[in-house]
Amino acid sequence: MNKSQIQLIRVYKRQSKSPWDDHSTVLLLADHQLENDEVQLSFNKYIYLHRNVQGQMIGISISKSLLEENAELESQYLTGIEAYMMLLIYIDDIAVFCEFFKNEFMSIFGIYPHYYFETAEQCWSDLIIAADTL
User: Fold this and answer.
1) Cβ neighbours, 10 Å, residue 83
2) How many CB atoms are closer than 10 A to CB 115?
3) pLDDT for residue 6
4) How confident is the model at residue 52 (pLDDT cuts 50, 70, 90)?
5) What's the pLDDT band for 17 if we cut at 50, 70, 90?
6) pTM value?
7) How far apart are CA 47 and CA 68, in angstroms?
8) What is the pLDDT of residue 5?
9) How many whole angstroms separate alpha carbon 127 and alpha carbon 8?
10) φ and ψ at 27, to 5 degrees?
11) Which of these, 116, 106, 51, lies nearest to 124 by C-alpha position?
12) What's the pLDDT at 2?
């Protein structure tokens, strides 16, 4: 798949399989290889950010292979602290993946991936620590 053909955001054309009333997803991670300046994707290992019609995050979904790697999880669909914990576990992989699509990422979030994930790592860590103190 050519980098110019990849769209990180996918708006649903039919009902989602997720348990949420989601409108679109943002691809944060997928298996990939770079061949002749083209990113080839496969979806054995993936993370999607699910958003509602207003664009707000409502959760993430992970592949079955990631679910198997994280046996403490009960579902492929994660919200709240579980979602942030999973994002933190794979933040380096996610950041590398999103750098391949930095212009599209910039158009979605208004910030380049390396800046976004530097800040997100601290924010997500703070949210998890705060939840532990409750």
Assistant:
1) 22
2) 11
3) 57
4) very high
5) confident
6) 0.88
7) 14
8) 55
9) 25
10) -75, 115
11) 116
12) 46
Q: How many CA atoms lie within 13 A of 129 on its CB side?
A: 6
Rounded to whole angstroms, how far apart are CA atoms 73 and 8?
25
End-to-end CA distance of the chain: 45
Q: Give the 3-state secondary structure of residue 118.
A: helix
Cβ contacts of 128 within 8 Å, gap of 6 or more: 81, 84, 85, 88
pLDDT, mean of residues 43-63: 95
* φ and ψ at residue 88, rounded to 5 degrees: -70, -40
Residue environment code for 32-48, b if the CB has 16+ CB neighbours within 10 A, otherwise e = beeeeeebeeeeebbbb
Tokens of 91: 């933040």
Q: In 3-state terms, what secondary structure has residue 105?
A: helix
The residue count of the chain comes to 134
Amino acid 34: pLDDT? 82
User: Would you call 20 helix, strand, or coil by DSSP?
Assistant: coil
Sign of the alpha-carbon dihedral angle for 46, 97, 86, 19: negative
